[in-house]
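ok trying again, last paste got cut off:
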Amino acid sequence: MRVAAAGALAVGALLTLGSNAAAGASGSLDGTAAASTDILDVVEVSGFLDGIMADFIERSIEQASAKGSLGLVLQVNSPRAIVDDERLVELAARIRSSDVPVYMWVGPSGSVATGAVGQLAGVVGDLAVAPGSKLGDLGPLILPAEHLAEPFADAYPIMQDRTVSSAETIDLGLAREAPTLGFFVIDLPGFVAEIDTTGDEPVRVPVSPVRFAKLSLIDQFMHTAASPALAYLLFLAGTGLLVFELYTAGVGIAGGLGALSFLLGCYGLAALPARGWAVGLLLVAMFGYGVDIQTGVPRVWTAIATVCLTVGSLTLFDGVSLSWVTLLAGIVGVTAGMVTGMPAMVRTRYGTPTIGREWMIGALGVARDPVDPEGVVVIDGAPWRARTQRATPIAEGDPIRVMALEGLVLTVEPADAADDAAEKSA
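nice, full thing came through this time. structure:
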């Protein structure tokens, strides 16, 4: 009993051995350990199960088989699969037909294996769940029923529409409890452990080395880009920067970053269950903001764009909810940038470079829109918000003269056609 109670102390030694194996060195405790060359592979499956992760699992199975590994452990914390049903069936078949046994540990504490990912727990050789982790909410059965382990198939109706706790999975006979990865692997078939009696109490320590595998840097980058929050924000940032680039001289850093963000966002949305019409609403929103940016003041198109942005953001994904923090960052950030930041940038881009704006008093221009009592006028090619003096209406295309400045708003009055012609000739 004391030996079993002291098993938790083996975890630190296991992780140390795993780090050495991952670096290409086999860890050992003594002469017996040095004689053990069988390695156990561990693959971390986190986030959504997409095509990149499915391919990585299959490659890991092939490599473990080629190297004669003791087995492959899938360390799972995944809420759902976003691959199609056919791809999921192929992955499950590869797990079942593997030359080395494939196991699953849902951990550490607080992890989940739900949706179609949870169905894969029915085809592995051994299943363990960390305390506080959950399994279930499996949905309609995608995998062939005959491929599932008998206890898993019997419990499937219970887990189809709800999750079960770690304690329930044990009661149902689906899994055994393993607070840590060390507790799980030390009892796997073929995994060598020994009793260390050098301390005050005997301790089970692992002898077989453990090799941890993760996605490559590029694959991890693309896998991360396919997360809902990042894909949404990248798409908005990319389209916003591309709109910004339309009003700058030449092609600059903003255009390059915008194109890269837009492409990554499109990749993420394509991999995720995004609604096409919701993506279309986001594009309409950017078009609407772009229309009113040229006028210099928010108008009908700004209102239309804001509505499209809000509705498109709230309904973007099917079955996946974005956090309120992400939604606020996207909606408020884009709206503020397009309504306040972009018009100011346009005035800076097309306005005459100068220190201060006192030079504008007395300057002549033309009304781009009717100014009654507010509207937009053009001074030296740059649009400005304007207000008429003494509420005198000014028609579109009429010449105007700047009388005063009130912040970013010009106070103007009608100018004589003769004055306008004289300035143009000058």
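cool. DSSP finds 16 helices and 16 strands in the chain. The domain at 2-218 is CATH 3.90.226.10 (2-enoyl-CoA Hydratase; Chain A, domain 1).
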